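WARN retry 2 of 3 for item q-0093 after timeout on previous attempt; input resubmitted unchanged.
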Amino acid sequence: MKQDSYEYFHITDKMRFKNKQDKSTIVYNEYIVLTNIPEKAYRYIVNGKSAIEWIMDRYQVKTDKKSLIKNDCNDWAREHNQPRYIFDLLQLVINLSIQTVDIVESLPKLKFDN
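OK item q-0093 returned
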């Protein structure tokens, strides 16, 4: 199978963790599994949820129950001829999360005078 094809990089339903207790492995689709994601990556929190989990939650194929309108996260990738868009975005967010946590942890602690 061509690794740059839409079929290879598409989201069929939604990304998920291989095991709910272990976030080190994300099943991207039936062809791609990301492994060895450090726990540190999930410590970068945006509005109460890790940035990685935001991507996993927002980029899925979902049909609205009332209108029956299908929201397919793959449409943008097809329209812009970028089959790897969601996959690359997820990898970037994982990297960004790790680097952000590293930077924040390296900052000196603030001390306030009483």
